[in-house]
Amino acid sequence: MKYMFLLYGPDLPEPGTPQARKLLEDWTVARQAMADAGVLIDCAPLQPVSASTTVRVRNGETLLTDGPAAEIKEVFGGFTLIECDGLDDALKWAARIPTAHDGKVEVRPVIQVAS
Amino acid sequence: MAVVTRLTGDLEAAEDAVQDACALALAKWPAEGVPSSPGGWLAGVARHKALDRLRREARRAEKEMAAFRREPAPPAGEPGLGEPGLAPGETGLALGEPGAAGDRLGPADDELALIFMCCHPALDPDARIALTLRCVCGLPTAEIAAAFLVPEPTMAQRLVRAKRKIRMAGIRLRLPEREDLPQRLAAVLRVGYLVYTQGHTAPAGPDLVREDLCDQAIRLARALTALLPGEPEAAGLLALMLLTDARRAARTGDAGELVLLSDQDRGRWDRAKIAEGDALLERALRAGRPGPYQLHAAIAACHSCAPSAEQTDWREIAALYGELLRYEPTAVTEANRAVAVAMAEGPAAGLAILDNLGEHPRLATWPQFHIARAALLRQTGRHGDAAAAYRAALRLGLSEPQRAFIERQLAGVSRGRRS
Fold first, then answer.
1. Is the pLDDT of residue B189 over 60?
2. N or C: which end of chain B has fewer CB within 10 A?
3. Around Cβ B284, how many Cβ atoms within 10 Å?
């Protein structure tokens, strides 16, 4: 099964700061562990919501808004896509994501669409 | 259910198959006689029904194909879910080798895996209880709804949502890995405990005790203790249930009215249950891994071996509640400790602790808090305050025997004030 981890946490630290280096180290460890276990499909941080654009199409017309789809306190700041056997495995990996320690990781099963 | 869920990997499909099997049994057994192993017969038929269903659907989805390939060995007279004849060795082994817990489980392990699945921490806590009663204990949805005071469609909806979550989220029918066992077991024991307490003091309705729920909870705890012989908290929970349940007959009078522990005819306590509970607790404590259920059971055992309320070792009970606070640092535990302290050192000492807890929001909705406080106030001669506390309890959800009990106490307080 494929699981998408939606990573909600504080804003990323300024590049070059000790916090940023620490975060990078933590991510490297988590990423490597998932890759070694053969579960990792992809993972990436996202640019801040100030760079996002929300798209809606209504009555054939495309409406664009500056900013995120939903205003929430914690920022949707990245994702991780893994493939593993079941929820228990997925939850274990989610707990190893650095964001789980200062934010939240929502584990969403991915629907398999027949190609 | 467990055997078929293993096959289909889907609770809803398993439930349908088991229902088909039961329908067939109702049609066949009266004419042809009950087979020698009814549980095995049902499991076998349910498997075939489930397989038929899978074959029909297998072409459509890959997921069912995967379940198909996991087909277990034929059930040659294997025990059904309703029979407690489980070989404990089977399961101890599987838990020792979590890596092997994948596909080669016996029926006992299937039942255990089903319990763990229904009590999975990723499910809503209320849904865990409902699902366990439905899929492990086999209680009809209508009865579960009645026990938890919700309309049947609401309960049905809750069950459907939980089963859907299990399927969509990929919660597997398997035993937890050893490192996860403490947390997973705690969730399972909690469900058993809540089912028992719901039965022990019904939150509303004509009866104080819902015996069916108590019996189901004991059956569940018995199965857990047999399946997990190395877990003292499982035995502790069963001991707690047995020791408490031993008083069932004495807890209500001839007219179904509530009789307090101190006023119960201890001759009506079930000595066999007490002996079994005591022995279980003693064995559990010897493992040297104490926990909240063993402590609750130890408190219940203090009551069971006392010839009367006065001759109860209240100091020991107060100490045990103090110990319990380490695991359950809740106002309810502290309130229970207060009652024990009041018995050991006098009502004023207990009242001091209760009043210290003050207007705790959780306690305010707990009838026992007001009842206990009222009794202590009455003993210290504060009849007006006692009456107010009884009235506060009456404003809460109560079974009819509880309500009648409080009204009797209230009448007694009023007489006390006049005299």
1. yes
2. C
3. 26
For B391, other C-beta atoms within 10 Å of its C-beta total 13
**Residue B186 domain flag:** yes
Q: How high is the pLDDT of residue B9?
A: 67
pLDDT of residue A49: 84
Answer yes or no: do B222 and B118 share one domain: yes
Locate tokens 């996202």: which residue? Answer: A46
Same domain, B71 and B138: no
Does B74 share its domain with B112?
no
> Which of B172, B196, B228 is the endpoint of a domain?
B228
Amino acid identity of residue B353, one-letter, is: I
Q: Which of B122, B177, B180 sits opposite A87 (nearest CB)?
A: B122
- Measure CA B126 to chain center: 13
The residues that bridge with A44 in the sheet, in sequence order, are A79
What is the spatial distance between Cα B192 and Cα B213, in angstroms, rounded to a whole number? 10
Distances (CA, A) of B361 to B226, B323, B330, B332, B365: 39, 23, 12, 11, 7
Q: Kindly determine whether residue B171 and residue A88, on different chains, have CB atoms separated by under 8 Å.
A: yes
Domains and CATH numbers, chain A: 2-109 (3.30.70.1060)
Confidence band of B364 (pLDDT split at 50, 70, 90): confident
Amino acid at B19: Q
Is residue B24 a part of any domain in this protein?
Answer: yes
Mean pLDDT of B155-173: 94
Which band of pLDDT confidence, cut at 50, 70 and 90, is reported for residue B79? very low
Q: Has residue B292 been placed in a domain?
A: no
How much is the pLDDT for B205? 74
Q: Round to whole Å and give the CA distance between A15 and A47.
A: 13
What gap in Å lies between CA B101 and CA B220, rounded to an integer? Answer: 22
Question: Domain end: B228, B259, B280, which one?
Answer: B228
What value of ipTM does the predicted structure carry? 0.81
Please state the rounded mean pLDDT for residues B334-359: 91
A91 CB near a chain B CB, below 8 Å?
yes
CA dist., res. B13 & res. B35, Å (int): 25
Chain A interface includes B290 (CB < 8 A): no
Whether the per-residue pLDDT at A22 is higher than 60: the answer is yes
Tell me phi and psi for residue A109, to 5 degrees: -65, 145
- What domain range includes position B409? 365-419
Helix (H) or strand (E) holding B48: helix B38-58
Please name the residue that has the structure tokens 């403490």.
Answer: B182
Counting the structural domains of chain B, the total is 3
Count of beta carbons in the 10 Å neighbourhood of residue B330: 14
Q: Is residue B310 part of a domain?
A: no
Instruction: Please tell me the pTM assigned to this model.
Output: 0.74
Kindly give the interhelix angle for A18-36 and A87-96, rounded to the nearest 10 degrees: 150
- Assess whether B52 and B136 both reside in one domain: no
- A62 Cα to chain B: minimum distance (Å): 32
Predicted local confidence at residue B418, as pLDDT = 55
